[in-house]
Amino acid sequence: MTESVPESGHIPAGESKIIPIEAESIKQRVEEVVQWVDSLEHKLTEVENFYSTIALSNSASRHVVGIRKVQQEAARREAVAAKRMHDLMRQFGTIFRQITQHKCAWPFMHPVDVESLGLDDYYEVIDEPMDFSTIKNQMDAKDGTGYKHVMQIYADMRLVFENAMKYNEEASDVYSMAKTLLQKFEEKWAHFLPKVLEEEKIREEEEKQSAMEALLAKEASHTKTTRDLSNEICNVNDELEKLRQVVVGRCRKITSEEKRNIGFALLKLSTDELQKVLGIVAQADPRFQTRAEEVTIEMDVLDEPTLWRLKFLVKDALENATNKKKEEKIKTGECRGTKQNNEVSNKRNAVNKLAERRTKRPCL
């Protein structure tokens, strides 16, 4: 006798021996596991984002340290660098004194007295006034508002002379004095510059070292997170297996007729759905070759959990296919109805035009 292929959407869901209280308990536990998985996915995303934005050396000699130790080491380096910079600025003080004690320095010792000198347009020409007394106060500041780098002092020293040369005419005494001091200052700075460049080089190397140590510490932290995630995922799998065993233990066995119906229904599945079927079978039997040219699924050798998973997958797939066909029929009907309405409307318009012509024709 030949078996008929089940109609789409008519794979019965089957019966269960699970009583309502047990079902509610299982449902609640499944929801807890789902939340658990969501949390793991969030943590895993953080780790993936971290590793997607870095490219670390594979050197076996690199040393991974803790984040707190990295922070302490960074603070120590910063303090040492600040002390070195303070020494540099103190050494720069010698140049500053030599320039300010020059006979041409007196016009630049204090802020320009705009009102007394009647320089009404001074602030229109000069955007950032600067003088030696302001620089000295910044160099001596102890409240943290002073200079942090010797290059800041250098820039302000140049600004003093540049402002004077910008505002005053080239033939004026002030212009000439500013130009003279600027030349002397640049000569002294040229001898001092190698020390500044050496400090910059040291700072750059220290910053690179600090950045690498911080990166390695973060990598170590994420390595631990990854290890913890792996353990938690194993726990999730164990929990899901327990739930599956509970559910399967409460369900009746798949009948021979249902096995045949599932086998016939597989013929109606799409390629993507068949791939899911092969995946389910492969999970139950690691030896199952999903990429073979010809694949044979023997329903009689599959265990109950796998049969139930195939049953529900086939049922959902066929129901989805049926619903899709209904939607297509509805859309086709709507298009056909629209076309018919358009044809009727066109005929009505043609009749109206013909009647209109007859009305306008003169009587003989």
UniProtKB/TrEMBL annotation:
Give the UniProt keywords, A-Z. Answer: Bromodomain, Transcription, Transcription regulation
Which Pfam families is this protein grouped with?
Answer: BET, Bromodomain
Looking up PROSITE patterns in the UniProt record yields: BROMODOMAIN_2, NET
Please note every region of biased composition (Basic and acidic residues).
Answer: 325-337
* Occurrences of domain NET (ranges): 244-325
Domain Bromo positions? 100-175
Q: Which residue windows does the record flag with biased composition (Polar residues)?
A: 338-349
Q: Where is this region: Disordered?
A: 325-364
Q: Which PANTHER family match?
A: OSJNBA0053K19.4 PROTEIN
Please identify the protein, giving its name as recorded. Bromo domain-containing protein
What is the species listed in this Swiss-Prot or TrEMBL entry?
Brassica cretica (Mustard)
